Write the structure tokens for this entry.
Amino acid sequence: MDETTWHRRTRTTLLVASLFYLVAYSWRVIADLTGPARTVATVVVIVTWAMFIVDYLVRLFLAPHKWQWFRSHLPALAFALVPVLRLVRLLSALTRAPGLRPSAGRVLRTQILVYGAGAAVILIYISTLAVLEVERHAPGGTITTFGIAIWWACVTVTTTGYGDYTPVTDAGRWVGVGLMFGGVALAGVITATLASWVLERAGRGHDDQEPATRAQVRELMAKIDALSAGDGGSRNDEGRTP
């Protein structure tokens, strides 16, 4: 079995596992479980997370060129570390907007916006759960409810930083660091996508002013070569006519 076959066969199973992971983790944190219920939720979280780690290692082992596969499959590593990110794939239906003429640029921008928005929502939600779990019972902690935690996550991901609620534990601060870096990255991607869309709209109707791409130049040269070859063949045929 090769890596592609393994990935195709396990894709649906891992998607369901990511959903179980999210439900179990949310249940454990929001309900502040104790006793057997917390144990059950923790077991589900650990088992589903282990499934993603094993899947990543198996795919890496099956890849013929492991280092090249590692560099070209960084999203797979992100899915293994944060399993719920796989749920972003469910948004693929939204990337096919009806009634629009498909083009490479438009499809790419739509995918970036949809997946970026989905990743932002998941990042905020998971950070909310993570910071609430470590801060709720910490001495001097101010992030003690789900509402406060999600407010803090939204403020942090936008790098606003009101400072009304701040983590007091090292783990909570690390969550904040990751959330800030993630927010800056997502903001940069979405801003660049919007800028690309604005430039395309501004250049619409002015195709003669747009620079040709390498692909367009290669296509034009191929057509010229084909015409030249056909013209040369016709002349040779005329020369051989008695």
Notes: Residues 235 and 241 are 10 Å apart (CA to CA).
